[in-house]
Amino acid sequence: MEQFVSSGQIAGVILVVLAIEIAAASYYFWRRQRTFLLLSFVANGLAGAALVLALRAALQQAGWLFVAIYLLGGLLAHLADVVLRLAATRHAEGVPSTD
User: Fold this and answer.
1) How wide is the angle at C-alpha 41 spanned by C-alphas 55 and 48, nearest 5°?
2) pTM of the prediction?
3) By CB atoms within 10 Å of each CB, which of 24, 53, 54, 81 scores lowest?
4) In whole angstroms, what is the distance from residue 57 CA to residue 29 CA?
5) Alpha-carbon distance 74 to 30, whole Å?
6) H or E stretch including 8?
7) In this predicted model, what pLDDT tens digit does every residue of 76-98 receive, in sequence order?
């Protein structure tokens, strides 16, 4: 088990489970025409996936640059999720957009 974790193989398992979760939830939100929730959930999943990739890079000693790139990707996905959630809240409250 130690080899499974320290080699970074556990990250691959986590990514597969995360992909299945995102696909199932995306289908659910798409069928119910919940666009903001769908996009927000996907952005949240991408943020999580980026963190798992950063963990894998660190476990495999890929170097600080790869860890930093994955963490930056996670930050960007997280910011996209926050913006989408704020937009969904404004939409639900009936506030007109400024676009």
Assistant:
1) 5
2) 0.82
3) 24
4) 32
5) 24
6) none
7) 999 999 999 888 888 777 766 55
